DNA sequence: GTCTATATTGAGATAGAC
DNA sequence: GTCTATCTCAATATAGAC
């Protein structure tokens, strides 16, 4: 079977008549956004990479910006789901441990879209909305760390903000590799 | 003296008739590039920020891309000068110490243009040329570290590439703050 | 050195046939 | 679901007066 392109998970389609679904388009878009940056990416680049005409892409998405929005939602949904699941996991230290482990898992599975999220500059409503969601997430994690510190379940000789920076600085630095 | 704008170092000019020199234009451009990213920055933004017409900017530079080029040259010139000065500073450990101290100094003085340098994606000849110069610099630092390790003047229980990553990861992380 | 036009073009998006 | 062709507009850059 030489004539097949890898589409989104579990899907395969004939080359030359790609027949992409949204996931397949999105996967490629996220990759190219990460390589060249969102602004420097043109629809022509995406079309070339997909071996599709530019026009065909618009059958799947309304705009270039929507591709960004979908990618950012993917990352944020995954992070927020971990946070959600951590809620009913006992004391603060247990919830924090679950959350950090989960966040690493998200990073492994969704590194490209998480990287996009971390590089936002707030140049549009879509970017600013995603940044807001990220800030809420960051805040809840900070609160959880503070709570665990009050518990005495993690060391308190580090200022709260510093502990958060260290933890997420570590995680975020993974995206540079 | 209410009616003055801060221009490049040591220069002041009347508001309304800005009379910028290249340095003043460049300082503002680098700031805006860092805020919104190079691609998302428009000449209209720069003009608004400078309180100048778009056309006037082209009296000082040939293109938007030249502004980027000048900024990157500024960062690279500063880094390379430190490397140059370190050459005749004795043994590898001394040269390395001088270089690291100097690199921190460059970061303090030229943080905005260094930040631009660290964020390049190689989307144009200008970007790729700057990335090449940076790679040469990185390589020379790596060699110096390797030499200091052979000397026995710094610990060798860390793999060479890792030591470099740690050192420059630390420095580069300063740009995130 | 700055201004107000205006020219140009690159890239996002649409229309309609297949 | 994809294609070709075209529309539209924003953004870079230029021209020429002050």
Structural features, described:
Two copies of one chain form a homodimer. Chain A is mainly α and 177 residues long. Chain A has seven helices and two strands. Chain A has helices at 22-36, 43-50, 54-60, 64-86, 92-118, 125-151, 160-173; strands at residues 4-6, 12-14. Chain A has a two-stranded antiparallel sheet. The first copy, chain A, is elongated and about 60 Å long. The two termini of chain A are 34 Å apart. In chain A, 23% of the residues are buried.
Q: Keywords, please?
A:
two-stranded antiparallel ribbon; 2 strands; disordered N terminus; homodimer; 177 residues; DNA-binding; elongated; mainly alpha
Strand content of chain A: under 5%
Q: How far is it from the N-terminal to the C-terminal residue of chain A, by CA?
A: 34 Å
Structural class based on helices, strands and sheet pairing of chain A: mainly alpha
- Overall pLDDT of chain A, averaged? 86
What overall form of chain A do the CA principal axes indicate?
A: elongated
Rg measurement of chain A, Å: 19 Å
The largest beta-sheet of chain A arranges its strands as 1-2
Return the string of H and E elements of chain A. EEHHHHHHH
Biggest interface, residues from each chain: A-B, 10 and 10 residues
- Give the biggest sheet of chain A: 2 strands, antiparallel
Helix content of chain A: 55-70%
Show unreliable segments of chain A.
1-16
Tally the beta strands of chain A.
2
Describe the oligomeric state of these chains in a short phrase. homodimer
Count up the helices of chain A.
Answer: 7
């Amino acid at each position: 079977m030489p004539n097949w392109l890898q589409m989104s998970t579990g899907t395969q389609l004939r080359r030359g008549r790609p027949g992409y679904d949204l996931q397949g388009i999105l996967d490629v878009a996220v990759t190219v956004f990460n390589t060249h940056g969102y602004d420097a990416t043109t629809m022509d680049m995406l079309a070339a990479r997909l071996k599709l005409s530019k026009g065909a892409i618009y059958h799947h998405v309304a705009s270039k910006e929507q591709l960004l929005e979908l990618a950012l939602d993917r990352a944020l949904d995954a992070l927020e789901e971990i946070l959600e699941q951590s809620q009913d996991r006992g004391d603060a230290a247990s919830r924090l441990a679950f959350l950090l482990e989960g966040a690493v898992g998200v990073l492994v599975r969704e590194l490209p879209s998480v990287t996009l999220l971390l590089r936002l500059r707030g140049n549009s409503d879509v970017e600013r909305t995603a940044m807001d969601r990220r800030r809420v997430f960051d805040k809840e994690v900070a609160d959880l760390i503070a709570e665990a510190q009050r518990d005495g379940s993690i060391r308190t000789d580090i200022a709260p903000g510093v502990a958060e920076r260290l933890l997420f600085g570590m995680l975020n630095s993974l995206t540079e590799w």
